[in-house]
Amino acid sequence: MRIAKSLLLLLALAFSGLSFAAETKSATVYKSPTCGCCKDYVAYLEKNGFKVSAVNEENMDPVKARYGVSRGMSSCHTAIVGDYVVEGHVPVTAIGKLLANKPKIHGIALPGMPQNSPGMGEMKSGTLTVYELTVAGTPKVFSVE
Predict the structure, then answer these.
(1) What is the CATH number of the domain that holds 88?
(2) Which residues form the signal peptide (predicted)?
(3) pLDDT greater than 70 at residue 89
(4) Whole-prediction pTM value?
């Protein structure tokens, strides 16, 4: 009987984890329909296990305003992952930290279009500074990837 209870508990935990993983592995990416690096970033997310819904937008300014992304933190595309905004070519390692730690921030950003970021060429570890997006708008380093 004790073994049966342990197995039941183990199965319950396993299935609750699967449900959590499924929730955190989806992203909506708002992007320009003509931007090649945005398409490459979507492919990068998909290759890393995300189910991506790509939404083409001719004008990204209203999208960035809607999600609270300031000009200083902006890039060419904006993603929504869970309850967070993910701005730019953010590596999945940073997204994983965001989802695992659940900080009380609005999201994260990799401003601009760094040449060595996902979707922009070969990624070079330790060279990408990812910032927190906060309501106050004061940039603070989230991680270096």
Answers:
(1) 3.40.30.10
(2) 1-21
(3) yes
(4) 0.82
Q: At 94, phi and psi to the nearest 5?
A: -70, -40
CB 133 within 8 A of CB 71: no
Q: Is the pLDDT of residue 10 over 80?
A: no
In a domain, 14, yes or no: no
Q: Nearest to residue 29, comparing CAs of 47, 68, 55?
A: 55
What b/e string do you get for 89-118 counting C-beta neighbours within 10 Å, with b at 16 or more?
bbbbbbbebbbeeeeebbbbbbbebbeebb
Residue 10 placed within a domain: no
Is pLDDT at 13 greater than 70 in this prediction? no
Domain of residue 74 covers 26-144
Position 113 scores a pLDDT of: 94
- Residue 13 in any domain: the answer is no
In a domain, 140, yes or no: yes
How many structural domains compose the chain? 1
